[in-house]
Amino acid sequence: MASSDDKLARYRRKRDPRQTREPMGEEARRGGDDDRPIFVIQQHAASTLHYDFRLEVDGVLKSWAVPKGPSTDPRVKRLAIPTEDHPLAYADFEGVIPAGQYGAGRVLIWDRGHYRNLKEGEDAPSVAEQLADGHATIWLEGEKLRGGYALIHTRLEKGKDWLLVKIDDEAADARRNPVSTEPASVVSGRTLEEIAAEEGTDDA
User: Fold this and answer.
1) Is 33 buried (19+), middle (13-18) or exposed (0-12) by CB count in 10 A?
2) Which secondary-structure segment (H or E) carries 85?
3) pTM for the full predicted model
4) Closest by Cα among 107, 81, 103, 84 to 25
5) Signed CA dihedral, 127, 133, 137, 140: sign only
6) What is the DSSP letter of 1?
7) What angle is formed at CA 186 by the lines to CA 153 and CA 182, rounded to 5 degrees?
8) Distance between CA atoms of 51 and 78, rounded to whole angstroms?
9) What is the pLDDT along the chain (204 residues), one digit of tens a residue?
10) CA distance 150 to 11
11) Measured between alpha carbons, how far is 188 from 109 in angstroms, rounded to an integer?
12) How many C-beta atoms lie closer than 10 Å to residue 57's C-beta?
């Protein structure tokens, strides 16, 4: 199994620590004594506005860009495009990636919390094993999102086409649209516009 440092090589190649405040991977895991795996969803106004969905798996944050953001409606399938693994400390990153840097733009922590594997039992596959097989089911316990979600690899184009789908359970709600009705950060309460104003930067 590759070490976390090896998994983060692609991440580091894309970033200049002298130019961006993004963590490079040396920081400690967020969450204190709670050993449950974390998830974070970051709203990211880069060249296009999207949501970065990240799960703690094997020492890194496995990451997908979700152009339209997550849905609470089981009938809705959201495209999820895998990106490079991120360091665990990225779960705390909120601010501005400077112009000229990879992913330049504003970032806020739209939701975060812990998650658990919905596959149970002694011989149940881990989330890492499920992702390798192209179909993972997890239960999110966030501040905005709760309940079961599935990540499904459509295999239409290897490594690029995944779907993020809400599982039809008691937390499903077709009437909610948190992407549009709950835009603020769960950490600072700021919007993307407020982050840009407070950090004194132009839109990327």
Assistant:
1) exposed
2) strand 77-86
3) 0.90
4) 84
5) positive
6) -
7) 75
8) 11
9) 555 668 899 989 999 888 888 998 755 555 556 789 999 999 999 989 999 999 999 999 999 999 999 999 999 999 999 999 999 999 999 999 999 888 899 999 999 999 999 998 889 999 999 999 999 999 999 999 999 999 999 876 655 789 999 999 999 999 999 999 999 999 999 999 999 998 865 444
10) 25
11) 8
12) 19
Q: At 86, list the tokens.
A: 């991120």
Q: CB atoms < 10 A from the CB of 104, how many?
A: 18
Closest CA to 109 of 60, 38, 15, 175: 38
Place of tokens 């992702």: 131
Burial status of residue 79 (CB atoms within 10 A of its CB: 0-12, 13-18, 19 or more):
middle
Q: How many Cα atoms within 13 Å fall on the side-chain side of residue 32?
A: 3
